[in-house]
Amino acid sequence: MLVLASGGTLGEAWMSGILAGIEDATGHDFRTTEAVVGTSAGALIAAALVAGERPRRPRPPNGQRELPAGASSGDVASEGSARLAAQWLPMPRTILQSVAREAVRLAGAAATPLAPIALAAGANGSTALRAALLGRAPGSDTSLAEIRERVDRAGARFDGRLRVVAVDRANGRRVVFGAPGAPATTVAEAVQASCSVPWIFAPVQIDGREYVDGGVWSNTNLDVAPAARATQVLCLNPIASLDIAMASPFGMLRAIAGSTAALETLALRSRGARVRMIGPGHDIARVMAPNLTDVRRREEVLAGAYAQGLEIGGATATGEPAPGSR
Q: How many Cβ atoms from other residues are within 10 Å of residue 145's Cβ?
């Protein structure tokens, strides 16, 4: 089972590279994964996998005619991620202070051994704050329609494996498109909604309701993975080890969502699932941290992540601990 978190243009490049490296080191095909949960940039990759696309590989060195094994010339995620490269908008100090206090409160809850209860309590207690903040700054850029069109052309469908996470702007609650009981929509619309970073992009309307980036609820949304006892869950979290500026949109999303990744991991482990979370290695994290929307560094991050994936895949094959995992 695969969980792909939010992380902007560079987060998409890092997750693509990691998956590609692991595939080439182990021979595993992530297109056959039994369930995939995607949030924001992660939703782009999840939709590409379900549509039958291979994770993107680095460009071949000069003079090399062929791409690395299993590579594709382009995919839904690599094309769509460019639209996540908008500049951040400055936020009012009062909003920054409010979300910072909420983040600290949720982070404190992570110490409790009653993870599922604490997770539910934290989520229920913060929906009003989310709704209030989302109502103040809806964003106006509608260019994410191009992402919807590309995903639609790729042919991704909700086939029972895919989960795409967004947040209802009006009530601040999480919606998991593709899960039982979720509102009916297309994968393309769900991915567009999941990528709609507040304060930058306009909310996406689906059946009369407005939805925004699923990272507003949680960067990973790991707890919605349909995992049971002995299920193996791999979570790729691009911002797990990054020092992100609070005034950036991704810093804001992290603050609003709170430090829930630890709680979500514990919640899955309480079901008996085996969870491995991987973040960027130290060197590549330094490249990513200043600006997750810097398209100029996309190929550098992709290449570094591919190398990290090869290392992880090689260690997994030999039974050694995977670097960057926990």
A: 13
